[in-house]
Automatic annotation (TrEMBL):
<keyword id="KW-0732">Signal</keyword>
<dbReference type="InterPro" id="IPR023296">
    <property type="entry name" value="Glyco_hydro_beta-prop_sf"/>
</dbReference>
<protein>
    <submittedName>
        <fullName>Beta-xylosidase</fullName>
    </submittedName>
</protein>
<feature type="signal peptide">
    <location>
        <begin position="1"/>
        <end position="22"/>
    </location>
</feature>
Length: 490
């Protein structure tokens, strides 16, 4: 009886959070549908350094019959991954979101401390996501992790919707109230999936959310298609704009008609590539993962699509920075962009996708730091010598001068021993002097007061001692009395 019940539950989970037609082919290099009929660019990107993992990089623990739909984040010295699976021990029976981390893209990915990957989000009985939570997309903005995911209360027609949860560590999550995006019901097709498979990016103060909606007006005959909303509110409750064939336009709410699909695909992933000044969408096609490029307004293709070859079974997860941007090369940040994905490569015992593996290649020979704005985006998190024997650290599009090299090394994702010309002429926004005041407030963490008069949240907290800064305990009200700047640290 138990085995039979488990088989029924596993089958139901596959119906709830997969589209049932994963091998959709992109329509040409641009992969555009409906209103987004931009012609492909003639600009061909040069690629090299193709790579793949020697084997499976991540899997759930005992009883996890499938593993797919990953979101992958380069977070300091760790590569962090959340994906869709199912644990018999995680109630209620249904899809769970698992978590693991590694020092390498080739794994092995394990739970914190080297254990079995834990389930960090499961069904919430009685709510819209009462049975299934799947298809995670995680970004981090100003110290808060945002998890966008597919939720379903069961397996009834069009039952999927998109939910949001937040966290301070990426492990313990607090759900927002109700779904933030539901099916638009523009048109009902044979595919009854509904809304899901979200992918989030943070760019210029906007939260971008790409997702599947099989009821969207501009979806394909089989429900395939990817739609985009953006808002400065991460919950998408206010100030929502929807992508149209003429760019973004304000809409009353997230249920506005889905007029423009940007790629003919299910289970796609989105990132912003600072060095190319373009969005990139990873989606599966016959030969592997196709990466399709759009300009900032999704009105034109600035480059021809490229393909990361190799076997696959279900949706790629792009390896991204915490804000959903493409990482820069550690050795050649202005001339090379790594494109890496983790994707399911086989069908397991439950006839659902599993065996997560890593594939990648580099785009080479570009001028990624050709202007100041692009250079500051590409070099976010980089530290390098300043012209005055200190260190310059790029943080959220600004240049922060740091007195102590040891502090800059602690705060940076990459440290260069030679200064890049791309930063010449960029003004210093703030100066982190030795012994700068360090404030700590209950529930708000630690921040450093710099000479611009702003409080810069910082982590890890050991930076204060490294900088020779005495820590002052303050109230939350005192903390909030200072203008808050971007977060320093990884």
């Amino acid at each position: 009886m138990a085995a039979a019940l488990l088989a029924v539950v596993l089958g139901a989970a596959a119906v709830a959070c997969t589209t049932g037609n994963a091998e959709t082919q992109a329509e040409g290099p641009g992969g555009a549908l409906g209103g987004a009929q931009a012609a492909p660019s003639d600009v061909v990107l040069t690629t090299g350094a193709a790579r793949q993992s020697p084997g499976v990089v991540a899997a759930g623990g005992p009883g996890a019959p499938y593993n797919y739909g990953p979101t992958v984040m380069l977070d300091g010295t760790r590569t962090r991954m959340w994906w869709c699976s199912q644990y018999p021990t995680a109630p209620p029976p249904g899809d769970d979101i698992l978590y693991a981390e590694s020092s390498s893209l080739d794994g092995p990915f394990t739970g914190p401390g080297g254990g079995v990957p834990p389930a960090v989000l499961s069904g919430n009985p009685g709510q819209f996501d009462g049975v299934h939570t799947c298809d995670p997309s995680v970004i981090r903005v100003d110290g808060t992790y945002y998890l966008y995911y597919t939720g379903a209360a069961g397996d009834h027609a069009l039952g999927n919707a998109i939910g949001l949860a937040t966290s301070t560590d990426g492990l313990i999550w607090t759900r927002a109230n109700g779904p933030i995006v539901a099916p638009s019901h523009d048109e009902h097709r044979d595919n009854l999936y509904g809304v899901g498979q979200p992918s989030a990016v943070y760019l210029d103060g906007w939260f971008y959310l790409m997702f599947t909606d099989t009821t969207g007006r501009d979806a394909g005959w089989n429900g395939a298609g990817q739609f985009v909303l953006r808002a400065k509110d991460p919950t998408f409750a206010t100030g929502v704009e929807s992508l149209t064939d003429k760019g973004f336009a304000a809409v009353p709410n997230t249920a506005a008609p889905r007029m423009t699909s940007i790629v003919d695909a299910f289970s796609a992933d989105l990132e912003w590539v600072d060095a190319l000044d373009a969005f990139a969408i990873a989606h599966e096609t016959q030969d592997g993962t196709t990466v399709t490029f759009w300009n900032r307004d999704f009105t034109a293709h600035p480059y021809r699509a490229l393909v990361i070859p190799g076997g696959w079974r279900e949706g790629p997860g792009l390896v991204r920075r915490p804000d959903g941007h493409a990482p820069a090369s550690a050795t050649d940040p202005c001339g090379r962009v790594p494109f890496d994905v983790v994707r399911a490569t086989s069908l397991g015992d439950a006839n659902a996708p599993t065996d997560l593996r890593h594939y990648g290649l580099d785009v080479v020979g570009i001028q990624g730091c050709g202007d100041r704005e692009r250079a500051l985006g590409v070099l976010d998190g980089y530290a390098m010598p300043s012209p005055v024997r200190t260190m310059d650290l790029v943080v959220d599009g600004k240049l922060v001068r740091v007195d102590r090299r040891s502090v800059a090394e602690q705060l940076a994702t990459h440290v260069l021993n030679q200064r890049l010309d791309a930063l010449d002429g960029v003004p210093v926004a703030a100066h982190l002097a030795s012994g700068a005041r360090a404030l700590q407030a209950p529930g708000l963490g630690m921040g450093l007061l710099l000479d611009d008069g702003k409080l810069w949240p910082v982590h890890p907290s050991t930076v204060a001692a490294l900088n020779g800064s005495a820590v002052e305990a303050v109230s939350a009200a005192q903390w909030r009395s200072y203008p808050e700047a971007a977060t320093l640290g990884r």
